[in-house]
Amino acid sequence: MLPIVDSHCHLDFEDFRDDLPVILERARAAGIVGMVCVGSGGDLATAERAVVLAAKEPDVYAAIGIHPHDAGKVQPELWPALEELGKRDRVVGVGETGLDYFYDHSPRQAQREVFERFLRLAVAVKRPVICHVRDAHDDAIDVLRAGPLPDAGGVIHCYSGNSDQARRYLDLGLFLSFSGVLTFKKADDIRAAAAYAPADRILVETDAPYLAPMPHRGQRNEPAYVVKTLEALAQVRGISISRAAEATTANAFRLFNLGMPGVS
Predict the structure, then answer these.
(1) Domains of the chain
(2) Which of 17, 75, 121, 239 is packed most tightly, with the most Cβ within 10 A?
(3) DSSP-based helix, strand, coil % in the chain, nearest 5
(4) Distance in angstroms (rounded) separating the CA atoms of residues 249 and 167
(5) Using one digit for the tens of pLDDT, what is the confidence trace for 214-253?
């Protein structure tokens, strides 16, 4: 059994309310040694739930953010509360934050302003930034280039771009995280990016409860299924599953500083 980190999931969601202990046990039985629970709904409640869960479970860590879908609803009083949460010991990342032009649920200018503010927050709390980018890679790269980028770095979660866009993110020192989309039939550009990225910059994730990999597509996703994404990553890179697990797990520990004082 290989040690694997699910670098992005949403265990705080209502989808897991009735059977979370079972979900966690299945993950552990599958070799998952760490799960980053990303609390990034439309208000502070989901971030707070992620922090509470991370305090209870030794292999769950938290990230705090506001999804770009909800950027238009962010109120000024939210920022001090987010900064306070961001300093908690078991909070290992800021986000998800970023740009989503596929749905455009919030005005693009509001998305950009909130994204920029979260970059400054990540710098202030000394945590890596977790970026959501969909159909907005050029603008997201512009924002990230303008910075400031935290010294702790960052990751483009659920990577959806091509190899050239991957190169530009990598040039900024960022990691790329691959989800179950890597297993989808029409994801050739994403597979090409997964093959292109250096071994020391790749992560795997579920984004659970979303984006279950084949053969579970259409079902509720869960951390145990990240094994299927890892298998697909190994295949596109032409390496063994054990090498893929070794690289992605080491990268997750390094990016999120999972061995830092106060974080087990």
Answers:
(1) 4-255 (3.20.20.140)
(2) 121
(3) 45, 15, 35
(4) 22
(5) 999 999 999 999 999 999 999 999 999 999 999 999 999 9
